[in-house]
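Incident review: delayed structure delivery

Summary: a single-chain prediction request sat in the queue longer than the usual turnaround. Root cause was a stuck worker, restarted by the on-call engineer. No data loss occurred. The affected request and its eventual output are reproduced below so the record is complete for anyone auditing the incident later.

Affected input:
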Amino acid sequence: MNKMMGDIVQSYSGRKEMVFDVDDLESFLSKCNDGDKIRVESFTSGYKIPVDERYKHVLSVAEEVTGWKLTDSRCHQNTLIRSFVAYTLRSEGYSFGSIGKVMGRDHSTIIHAVRKMQDMQSVPAFYKDDLAMFREFERLLNEKKDEE
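Output delivered after worker restart:
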């Protein structure tokens, strides 16, 4: 079995991660035989924005779309905004722990928020209004990402 070693670096979340140069990776892959299996557990490319900076941006878009300001309250509006933000950050590759830390919540709360958003998408008729708001949030977030 061929093995490839990368540089071990400290990530923003404090975990150690393996980083590979693209040229080294291409060279490694060219030496693999047909039928060889490669396991990749995680992949990101380029510079990853620190979670606290990304959180502020995503939160501002969520507040703009919903028309609500996030407070510490547990009312529906606040939990919905938190769920939008947590789901988006998680889908961008941030860890549950780092999202929870920046949002002032436990990682298990973030796991629940992400699952809640996944459930909303699996039963769209039941969550019609919330899902419509989330779609608008995603659209606006992508629009602003294109502007950057």
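Verification: Residues 6-13 have pLDDT under 50 and may be disordered.
Action items: add queue-age alerting; document worker restart procedure.
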